[in-house]
Structure formats: C-alpha cells, structure tokens
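Give me the fold.
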Amino acid sequence: MNYYRNLSSKSGIRAYQCISDGLIVQFSDSSIYEYTYLSAGVELINKMKILAKQGSGLNGFINRKVRKLYSRRLK
C-alpha cells in the first residue's frame, strides 16, 4: 500500500494501492475496501487513481460519487 499524502490534513484516507482493474483504499478507521472497474466503472476508478496519486480530494470524491460502489470489503 502507498501512504496517502493527505495534503489537506483532513482526509479519512490512510493508504491506497492501484491494481490493474481498480483501487484498494484503506481508511483512517483501518477498514479496507476494493473498488473495481466492474463495481464503480472505468471513469470513476480512473479519477480515483488520479486523486490518490495527487494526495488530495480522494475522500471527498468517494463520499460524493462512489460511496457504496465498492466490490468488497477486505478488512
């Protein structure tokens, strides 16, 4: 997992990992969710990957656009 830079210092995201067909996100409460192209769509996942690498905006984007479109909860 890659540490999420959290440029705003207010994010609920702790870490992320880009995978071939999606993104795995670890939240500050230690829960881990997998979002895939099948569960959320290519456009949303690609935007999430960009935000994750930038270190800003991912938590808000998930709350506004993706919410429960995860493929599975890993932890």
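The first helix runs from residue 37 to 40.
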